[in-house]
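Annual report, structural modelling task.

Input specification for the fe (iii) ion complex:
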Amino acid sequence: MQAHERGFFTEENSVEVVTGRNINAKDARLRAVMDVIIRKLHEAVKEIEPTQDEWFQAIQFLTAVGHKCDDWRQEFILLSDVLGVSMLVDAINNRKPSGASESTVLGPFHVADAPELPMGANICLDQKGEDMVIHGHIRDVDGRPIAGATLDVWQANDEGFYDVQQKGIQPDFNLRGLFRTGPDGSYWFRAVKPKYYPIPHDGPVGQLLAALGRHPNRPAHLHFILRADGCQPLITHIFDPDDPYISSDAVFGVKKSLLANFKRTNDPERAYELGFGGEFWDVEYDFVLAPARAGKGLA
Ligand code: BEZ
Ligand code: FE
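The model returned the following structure:
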């Protein structure tokens, strides 16, 4: 009988000894997951060869991440975001058929009960920022317009803050709304140009970013959740390609297909029709929803 079969631990057989202890796990998936994690973790420790102090520092870091969490702040999700794990899990779970719009991270600032607004409404409730109109179509992968699709939108303001970060400063539900497409699948609404902003970085994840010489910023974007009968829900953003952080998003959420054209427009007649005072930003972006997966209900 070899040492690992007797349960005796050595540096060499560490993986076999530890994973061998899990053979009576009731849940096969849990056992498989833990086996991989143990194998990869031991591999990392063997490669890094941490000192006792370094290992304790790692434990203290994870402890601080936990302590930073409350009902509103989820520091572990932020850690997953800045390590690229959130985007990887998103990519694995949202492989789309050719032509369908791509997904990206949800982020912590979605509010479930944003008001449903008439098409064309201005979601900017405090008249602060540069006017912007956003419009396009929602179609299926065969190019057919989708009627009755809902488009839940939220964005930061011209200073890079969401309403929920500035309670009492911004009106509630500022820069949020739910729109529903008509028969031609088109949508449009008015807003203001969003600005880049830092992810919450006053905690251990922010310290980690600083220690790694990384900035905490996300390039300017609008968030969307699109839903339609018979289609997979789509959680995504559109981004301003001219943003200074477009190639270094702190959470790796940018995809080429999600770059929209933010066109500065000087058209007094159209500005008048839109109720804008002067120049404005014109953003056109079409979404394509993938068909619902067999056996999966609507989310
Ligand atoms: C956001 O875009 O709202 C976001 C995403 C990930 C982390 C923090 C914020
Ligand atoms: Fe955001």
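The pocket of benzoic acid (ligand 1) is lined by residues 81, 105, 107-109, 199, 218, 251 (CB under 6 Å).
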